[in-house]
Amino acid sequence: MSGKTNIRGNRLETEIERSREESNWKKVIELAEHLKARNQPGLETLANFLIGEGKLESYLEENPPTESNVQRARTGLADARKYLMMCIGEPAKKTTTGDHESGTGHDSPPQVTLDPVHATAGHRRPSWGITGHHRLSLSSTNHHWLPWITTGLHRSPHASIDHHRPLQFITDPVNNSQQLAAEHRWPHLWNETLRTRKSSIHVIDLLEVSLDALLLLSKLEYAVGDYEGALAHLTAAGLDQLTEKTLPTRSLRIVAESYAIKGLCSERVPLPNNSKYQRAEKSEKMIRCFELAGDLTLLYLQEQDKLTSTPSTHSLQSLPAATTTGSTSPLPPSGLENKKIGVILETALQRAPILYMKAGQLDKAITRYRSMLAAVESTATQHLRLTLARQLAEVLLRGCSEHTYQPPTQGGKHLDERSKSSSSLKSGESPWKPQNYSGTNLFVPRNINEEIILLLLISEAMAVREAVLSQSPEFKNARVHAFDNATAVYDLLCISLARRKQFKILIEVFERAMKFSHEESHVWQQFGLALACGRKDARALLVLQEVHRLLPAQPHYCLLAARLCFQQLAKIDEGLEWVEKAIKCCEERMSFLSARCYLYQGMGLMLSANHDQRHSNSHTLRAKALESLTRAQQLDSSDHLVEFYLALLYAQNFHLVEAMHHVKLALYLRSDHPHSLHLLILLISAQKDYEEALELCEAALKEYPDDLHLMYVRASLEEAVFGGEVALLTARRMLTLWQKLYKEQLSSDTTDSQSYHHTNHDTYSIFNMSDKDAAPNPAESSAPTSMGIVFSEVVSLNLRLLSPTIPLDTNPEKLGPRPQLTLDSPPHPPTASVHAESVAASRVEQALSEVASSLSSYQPKPGPHQAWLLQIQIWLLTAQLYIKTDQLSEAAHCIQEASSIFPMSHHIMFMKGLLHEKKNEFHEAQTCYQNALAINPYHLKSLRHLGVVYHFLGRERLAEKTLADAIKVDPNDHYSWETMGEALTSLGQLDSASNCLQRAIDIEAKSPILPFTSVPFCYE
């Protein structure tokens, strides 16, 4: 019978312990009721403790201990308070309520000296409490528990005991050992008690139950808002004098919460004397409490994972899986993890570094963050690690510079070291320390950039993993909470990655965020900006369309979309539509961006006029552009861009006085604007004062030594002033500068970051400087990325151009009024072809057959194509200068270098024709010019020189027609008018020839060294 009782008791004991560790409080209460129903002496106190603990914890799981729940907790925790108070005895109650008086009267037990170390030395006693490892045996039938349980035992078995400090203890009345206890130390009392009654070994167990009850009562007082009462219970329990030792899982949590509650209550309870010393001492004690609570919490959660057989490192190993996309919609977290850690412990984990920062000890705050992140991850800390990693990254971003940054120690041995002033722990391994990651393959950041980006990418991976995809209403709160956490990480990633121009990584991050960003405008905005900065222009435009749908009243995203259309995508009409949307938004809300909207409208109309071959339409568009720019000037007279574009518009119309006035205003508003300086140099050269223009150009280059636009102008001016040899030196310096500017970029970026595959590549390339020896524009360049794209676009371009020819009268008097403003534009969408259908078709066939051999071995250069196209233009400039100085072999080598980069350019074919023309190889030159025109029928210089070749070959009628086509492309090209006059003279049409030559003289008198269209468009 005794054996059955022992088995039944052990089974109940195991069941209670397992239920406590699993926080199954309903079952704990049921088992405690069964235990209480046995009516065995001594078990009633233990049952009361278990019932009180279960009621307290189950209530706080449903109603977290926050300020909003204080009033409700005062009534809801009455039963829990009653049961816990029954476990601590009257003297303890008096101590915790302040009514206890010292002395040895009849109502108080005598005092004895207690040494629990010796008490446990000769006997392995079981325990439920904090001061022991083992379980209390419930099978004994001889339990005679002491009638009084005091709070005197407030030290662990390993604590250093002051033997001269009496602790209150009520002796066993049955053995009448009061006199023995008064005369001897506790070991003698203990041995005597063992000899007299075996059940007395459980005195310490009752004291431990009392200790646990006091700690739980402090938690109860904190929940009801009695912070001073909570501190009184903790003081009575002797929390500060507990020595670190291995504890059961449940006891780890109780002690961790006790330290956390002490720190939280100390923050709320004011000091009696608010002196500087007391404030510093209080802050130090609070930090120590929070650090101990944090370490114990992490250790407790790690032990919990071991009990539930959950690998503690699975989350880190599964992080890569978070980057994959899936079609399923995971449900939000059930909240068990949050319940497992609790509000008190979660707050305590984050308070220590915050208090360090408030005290101005940023280095210790960073060390504390690293210490917590170095702990082996458990199931319940996955969400918390996201918060800690984000907070540490934010602290490093805001409060730490590269000079003050201290990297974490290799191996992590010292990551969790605290300052001597804030901790009294031993230097050795502490049983209250959580397990940290260790090994030889751990990555340790070497600088602040590595640590910030590493932290944020880890946080992003965890945020994506925790994202709630379900759009069901019942998951709204969880979805919003997870999205807010992810958004905070994305904001920090934008700051850190954009500083270092790592837009490719940023784009990948936002691509992963799209699956849970439905109707979330903030993420869509950032995604669009990242795509625009990463030169993914087509995708950026699509994303901005979604942003405008979500935020229809925000004009700046419309302007950004318009800029992409104008600058990169060659979608002028669509860009103007975006500008109209922006203007509508500004008019409805009286936005300060109205002036910039009209500026963009004027820019778009200028570009649209360039693309319209009909003079009447282009004249109308330019007039509208002038109206828009004037309106922008009225709205914002201090915008230098408005003055710059007004000057450019007047300059292209050859109204040089007005252009000079506005460009000076632009420089007055912003004296360091390089594009305005560029335009001013050309305006001075149009006055044929090349020396002054060269002097200004050299002064501008001193301010902007890396500006290839200005260097191109300088080479042209040096050729006019000093000759080609001096200009060649500048061209060579341009090649050296190109190597300096783009070598690192080409070596680091081996993949193209452009997205121009769908556009006409020459529309905004660096070669489209009016096709009249203009300067490069690297910011508006593009290039094909594969052979298939090259052929498909060339064929599609030329098939669109196969249309009947519109006759062009060569008499300038019959050409009608010249448009007020004429841009020397990039290739235009045709309204009519410049050659007959059969001629155009033969040119396409000739060009493709010649270039096919070159393309068969062509491999696109790695890196951004704009850099390679810029190098092509420099090689061609150098080749042209060599041709003018009769160094033909060097010119051929330069052309070959340019052809090796991209052989399909009509500029390279034109330069080959120019070389043949210089050698008087007119038939070969004719073929080259025709090939260039097959690719781009509106290439002005190819048309002009083809007419010259026809003239030299004696084909005057073909020369006349070709030159007429050139004049139609650009009526302000004096070279075309001059050559036309020579061709008409050969035909005997002297009157028409005289008119053409006179027109050439008039135009040349106002023409700059390079066309005004060589000034690139700018947006800043």
From TrEMBL:
Matches recorded under InterPro entries: Endocytosis_PI4K-reg_protein, TPR-like_helical_dom_sf, TPR_rpt, TTC7_N
UniProt biased composition (Low complexity): 318-329
Spans of repeat TPR: 906-939, 940-973, 974-1007
Keyword list, A-Z: TPR repeat
Keyword Disulfide bond included in the entry's annotation: no
Gene3D superfamilies, per the entry: Tetratricopeptide repeat domain
Basic and acidic residues: bias regions: 93-104
Top-level taxon of the source organism: Eukaryota
Chain spans, region Disordered: 93-128, 310-334, 403-433, 808-833
One CC-aspect GO term: plasma membrane
Tagged with keyword Glycosyltransferase: no
Residues covered by the Tetratricopeptide repeat protein 7 N-terminal domain: 1-94, 211-508
Functional description taken from the UniProt entry: Involved in endocytosis.
Family under the similarity heading: Belongs to the YPP1 family.
Name the UniProt record assigns to this protein: Tetratricopeptide repeat protein 7 N-terminal domain-containing protein
Origin species: Petrolisthes manimaculis
